[in-house]
Each structure stands twice: as C-alpha cells, then as structure tokens.
Amino acid sequence: MADTHMIVLPGGGYAEHAAHEAEPVASWLGEIGVQASVFRYPLNVRHPAPLNALRSEIARRRAAGAQRIGLIGFSAGGHLAGLAALAPGVAPDQTVQFAVLGYAITSMETETYRPARLILLGEDASPQLRRSTSLDALVTPAAPPFFVWHTAEDPYVPPEHTYRFATALAANQVPHAVHVFAHGPHSLGLARNAGQAAVWTTLAAAWIAEQAARPGSE
C-alpha cells in the first residue's frame, strides 16, 4: 500500500472539525498499513472554497509520491469527500481513486441538517446550486468506488442520505459497499464499543486493502 495515501476529513457541519474523527482515524489507518493524514479544510466559508482547498491537498500528496488517493470523511467531511470524488472540473493530479463515507451528508436538497447547508450554500441557494452539490446528482459511471456506512437511528443526518446516494451508485453501476446498522447515534467516529456499528472498521479495512491493491492511479 506504499503508493496509496488516505486523507481524513473530520465532520462538524462545516462549522468545526470533530477531533474524534481526525487523528484517531488516521492512527487506525496506520494500524492497518495505510498511510494517512488529516486535512482540516476551511470552515464557515461558501462552496467551492472547501472543495478547492481539498483538491490542492490531493495534488500536493500526489506530487509527494502517492499514486492512489483515497478519502475518508464523516458527516460534513463525508460530503466534502464525495464532492472531491465526483464533482466535474477536476485536474488529472486531483483525482480520487476511492472514498469511504461515514454518516455523510450527501444531499443538499433535503431539509435535514440545514445548518451545514446554510454555511456552505447560503440562505438563498438556488435549486441548481443545491442540486449541483448533492452527491447523488453527481454520480456517473466513471465515479470511483465507494464504501458507505450509516446508522438507521441517526437523528441529525438520517439514513435517507445514504439510501439516495447508494441508489445513484447502483443505477450507474459504480462499485460500492453500503452498510446501515440498526442502532447508533450520529458522529460515532471509529465506533469502538458502540455495539454492532463497531464492525464498520473491520469491514472497511478489508475494502480499503482491496482498493489499495489496485495498480497505479486510474
């Protein structure tokens, strides 16, 4: 996995960076043999500032020798990871080869988790802007593989976000794994000692190893 690097994007509603979704996740990735770093993207700014900053970080990591770039994001960080993997207009050195999304905000068209949408898009965001920043609307057959997990009880970002996104991935025949666990709150992070949801890291580790083993960048 020496030529693979994963960038960790903590959640926090685009207003803060959740500490338990940052360095602890990078440490876990190191334990399973994956080079990883935390990227604290700009907060309380409008789209596309966070996306542009992340794309610059991807290019920087690629220039440093990473052939395959994977993203792992939680909640708002998952939304940003999805944007970087799917949004058009990406330069060749800013491509993403795979992504892991935990209880991610995927849709800017629903009314759920409105605070993050207001920060990123503003109060008067047009329907077109909300659609163009919704991950399900950005999926094409050329999208990279995704691992997506959520809990059915999440009160802040309902599993509808994952179901919408997974439906788009399936419709476009994009390789994906989706796990929705019956119990658990929002913002679980590594979910250690969190019941059934704790198994997500075991499932993701095998999936990440498979992605990292693919040759070169695609």
> What coarse outline follows from CA principal-axis ratios?
globular
Q: Structural class, please?
A: alpha/beta
Strands across the major sheet, in which order?
A: 2-1-3-4-5-6
Mean pLDDT: 96
Per DSSP E runs of 2 or more residues, the count of β-strands stands at: 6
Q: Helix count, per DSSP?
A: 8
Cα(first) to Cα(last) distance is 15 Å
Helix and strand element order: EHEHEHEHHHEHEH
Q: What's the story with the biggest beta sheet?
A: 6 strands, parallel
Strand content: 15-25%
Helix percentage: 25-40%
Q: Uncertain segments of ≥5 residues (pLDDT<50)?
A: none
Radius of gyration: 16 Å
Description:
The protein is α/β, with parallel strands linked by helices and 218 residues long. The chain contains 8 helices and 6 strands, in the order E-H-E-H-E-H-E-H-H-H-E-H-E-H. Helix 2 packs across helix 3. It is globular. The protein starts with a strand and ends in a 6-residue tail after the last helix.
